[in-house]
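Can't paste images in this forum, so I'm doing it all in text. The chain is below; anyone willing to post the predicted structure tokens underneath?
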Amino acid sequence: MMGALDKAMRRSPVAMEWQAAQDMLPLAPALGLSVEMPGILRYLGATMSSLRASQKGIAAAVPGVVIHVGGELDAVSGEWVVNPGRMARSLEMLRRVRPDLTIFEAKIEKMPFESGVASLVKGNRLPAGSIDWEAAAVEIDRVLVSGGKVDISAMGSLAPLKEALLKLGWQSVDLRFEARLTATKP
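Text version of the structure:
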């Protein structure tokens, strides 16, 4: 039953929301929420393990650092996380809760890294309307190695990011449902 539901949801227009719900479910106990249905939790745990393994596989394809923009709670151990640090308390808490990550107070439009250090820049559920995608494209292009990958989903359209990457000479840019962009740097 759950396998059929998962397949249907992953093919639906709300596939990103379905994934977001799966990503957040393991955090329920830390948030003081009670989750019953242990079978679903086991299923989601296996799904998350599989997702993390595939993310590590993508990152291993090209040597370098993985930069995770926002979404620090679903970042994989060892990644560099870019967080705008709207509240100093939230950055302190993140560093305490996730000591396995290196967290930088920065925005995607101005990342504090040397050029050509990353193999993957990823972000989940970014607020598309509050990001200058032209500046972000320049930064993504700068920090990625040749052959590096981008995998970003947003709440809103990523069409401006696609246009900006194409202007920079990128050719392999895939935009799905206006809200999920994957690309490979030439």
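The chain is about 40% helix and 25% strand. The CA atoms of residues 7 and 15 lie 10 Å apart.
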